[in-house]
Amino acid sequence: MNFATWSIRNPIPSILLFILLAIAGLFGFSRLPVQDLPDINLPLVSVSAVLPGATPTQLETEVARPIEDAVAALEGVRHVTTTITDGTVGIETEFSLETMLSDAQMRTKDAIDSIRSDLPSALLPPTVTTTNFTMEPILVLAVQSQRMNEAELSWFVDDAIVRAVRAVPGIGKVERVGGIEREAQVIVDPVRLSSVGATASDVSRALRQMQQQSSGGRGQLGGEEQSIRTVALVGQASELAMLPVILSDGRRIRLDQVATIRDSNADRTQIAMLDGKPVVGLNIYRARGAGEVAVAEGVRAALKELESRTPGLALTPVGGSIDYTIEQYEASIAMLYEGSLLAIFVVWLFLRDWRATMVAATALPLSILPTFAAIYWLGFTLNTLTLLALAVVVGILVDDAIVEVENIERHRRMGKPALQATEEAVNEIAKAVIATTLSLVAVFLPTALMTGYAGLFFKPFGWTAVIAVLASLLVARLLTPMMAAYFLKGNGRTETENARVIQERLYISKVRWCLAHPKATIAATLAFLAASLALLPLIPTGFLPSDDRSLTEMSIELPPGTALQTTVETSEQVRGALSRVEGITNVFTTIGQSGESTSGEIRQASLSLILAPRGDRPSKTSIEAAVRESLTGVPGARFSVGDGGSERLELILASEDVQALGQTAQSLVRELRALGTLSNINSTASAERQEIVIRPDLQRAAERGVTTEAIGDVVRIATRGDFDAQVGRLNLDNRQIFIRTRMADEARRNLSTLANLRVAGRDGVVALESIADISLASDLSRIDRYDRKRFVAVSADLNGMAQGDALARVEMLPAIRAMPSTVSLIPDGSAQIGEDISAGFLTALAAGVLCIYCVLVLLFRDFFQPVTILSALPLSIGGAFLALFLSGSALVLTAMIGLVMLMGIVAKNSILLVEYAILGMKSHGLSREQALLEACRMRARPIIMTSVAMIAGMAPLALGIGADASFRQPMAIAVIGGLLTSTVLSLLVVPVIFELVDDLEQSARRLFRRASHQPQSGHATL
Asked: What pLDDT, in 10s, does the model give residues 649-659?
């Protein structure tokens, strides 16, 4: 007695088991977080070091290189990427995937602490962080108010909105974009400062020392203890005018004698605009492990309540991933339903028995629901990949049930009672069903066990597919036989004589011809395979397909030194040009970044182009092409359109030889432009910008007792204010604002004013020009480094060309082929990840084929006939390549998933034929040809049924109905094309290969017997 017959005779345990599994599945489904992609916990540690006012060249020598050397020596470090801008060094250290993130962070911090004494004393303490939030915001909002000005709105966002959002569970980070900071400004007059013998440093230091409160004392009055606090604070900026300033020589002046005090705003370093109108932006990120949909719903509920309590407040969504995630989730669920219904309809179309169809159809929900329970238990989420796995196997899940029900129907047509027919049918088909299911498991299991980046992405995909397929086997061996025995009525639908004649004429006669002409059949098969492989160079290749979201990004970069207002004017000029592009509804613009050390970024702008709903506009790729064309009339700026990925080519050149690196990058840019197929070709080779250089005359400065540090302090404070940590603060009711001392904007525009600045010396203040030379020079505005070498990234828009084809053309360029030995071409991060994943899939494909062979050897106890089954695998490749070629799809990652899946499906069809042929020869005493013909007669129908059911299940994905199906469509097209050709060819070619392999096996056995009967050498016969 086996599982199937046991379940027939003991139905209650089986029914109870699947009721419990279904309940567990519903429970798991209700609690599974919904995401776009699974969380990828990469061991990345970020180091940020700030030295305000320092130039990139200075920071590279004094800060970046010592830190790089320290962290590069740590165990497990793979790559170190450094970005240096004005005042800031950002270093991202990538560790091997096996490294614990907490351990990597701790060791990185220890390494930096060990070299702290080697770093500049004015450097702010470096921060070592890891990210616990996703890299893409789930929501981007534009905040407007009719009752608040920009300063009030900025504080309202920082205070009320950010606090409300942070209270939502699952929030990782909230950042404001745009807006301004309130600040008390002390605008010193250089002339009046000079008349009283004071410096800007004196004023700033006096404010910091006087405008503060200190504590720490203790009193004991009246037998009780009291804390003592010294408070010297004013309530508003205007009260600062009366503040006494004590100079270094002990003299005292009043602040309003040398400065004008005003309650104003800090220098603007960022702007956000929606369709040209100033707004305050808000980026909201979820924490890793939190569901996007649940977090977004919580945020929207909190903001809706806040909006209802704040008259005049308007919150406009202008980006984020949540809408696309919801769209993809709903589309995936809908396609799961559609695929299931189509597969069930195909079963009914063949069986024309609603009872038999119901028995087969129960396999779908009872296989999928336990899968939800399993992926919840494994800690996975409902994301694009897990739902893709279910969409992939939806046609497969019903296969085992189809095969068993069809075999039961065949036995019932013989006039057997339902119970007897069911038991005999399921026992007869048992080996084939187990073999086909384990073959699919053998295909998907290597995907689930992949390591590296491929494993991070596709482990949920592989395990979801494996669990669903095993659940379908459990249904087929326990529930389907039991339901068939008690639910099916009558003797089944009798096969008509006409149907048998049609089958004999259309199919069996062709099999006879192939068996009679094996050489011609094999030659035609090899010709088909060769023609299929010849299609491969004609199919574009890439990593991921282009998506069709209703949002795209573009960036603008202006020359170094560009003023903020110029960047605003250029971005508005770009927005005006985009108004003529069809499909763009709104433009959200952000310029610059917040923070005292990133003012140089005001030359950069980012535009989020919000597109009309899909169906009411051209494709996203077409819109991006139109955007690039419309920008040709905007001079003096670099543009990048699209969010990178498959739409953009990125090449990275690295070298310690700065001159050779720059020349190679220039040559490569020039040759890429000459190709004519790429556009918007840019290089990150940072253009130089002007800077004012003060070179102290050390002899004269020493004679007057002036130090270089004093010169730097005065110049910094007078022109931009002191470091945030060093300035005084004004306490308001609910916050503190900085009190910043500096000169007026007009004074900073005049070089003579800078020359006349006074610096404290031994005998009083001296003019800066008397102890230093002031001149204009140039320096880099940004430095990028990769693995302790400078690098230049060269990028270009592909304009629809596949990434693989573009790379092949680039590799033939003279700039690459004749590259100096000191310069190296390295893959960028996304390309390297893509290569790792592609290599992982090829390895998984090979491992899957090997696993299928091992499974078949164990089940059939034969080393030869599994080769017959595997011979059908190449027959699927031709159809997959042909379908991709005819549809214009690229051979991308999802198409490779389809090829992996095809290996298991094609093996299923061959197993059904070979298993029945072996059964006929061994159990029924048929000749080889009779057994093959009988196998073709008996198994053609279930093979065609299962193939058509799988094609029907894949049809919604291939047609791309509804939401953006760009990610899933190549996979479905490849699977359907491969199924069509492999089903037709395997029904004709596998019998021929069976004969050839059987002949080979018989020859090998005769040779072995002959060798075993020969006398062994060394023994003489008498």
From this structure: 788 888 888 88
Cα angle 292, 297, 299; round to 5: 95
159: its two tokens: 């205070």
Torsion sign over Cα 881, 883, 886, 887 = negative
> The pTM is what?
0.82
Q: CA–CA distance from 21 to each of 2, 341, 386, 651 (Å)? A: 21, 22, 19, 51
Q: How far apart are the first and last CA of the chain?
A: 57
Ramachandran assignment for 615, one of left (phi > 0), alpha (psi -120 to 50 degrees), beta (any other): left
Cα–Cα separations (whole angstroms), residue 987 to 719, 909, 919:
83, 8, 18
pLDDT on residue 834: 64
- Integer Cα distance of 955 and 1020 in angstroms: 72
pLDDT tens sequence across 33-74: 988 888 777 788 999 998 877 888 889 999 999 999 999 999
The three-class DSSP label of residue 890 is coil
Rounded distance between C-alpha atoms, residue 968 and residue 964, angstroms: 9
DSSP 8-state symbol, 134: -
Task: Tell me if residue 327 falls in helix, strand or coil.
Answer: helix
Say if CB 267 and CB 595 are below 8 A apart: no
Closest CA to 746 of 26, 143, 117, 260: 260
Strand partners, 424: none
CA neighbours closer than 13 Å in the CB half-sphere of residue 562: 23
Alpha-carbon distance of 1020 to 1010, in angstroms, equals 19
Q: Cα-flanking dihedrals φ and ψ of residue 328, to 5°? A: -65, -40
Task: Find the farthest-apart pair of alpha carbons in the chain and give their distance in angstroms, rounded.
Answer: 132
Contacts (Cβ under 8 Å, ≥6 apart) of 636: 558, 559, 570
CA nearest 144: which of 316, 319, 320?
316
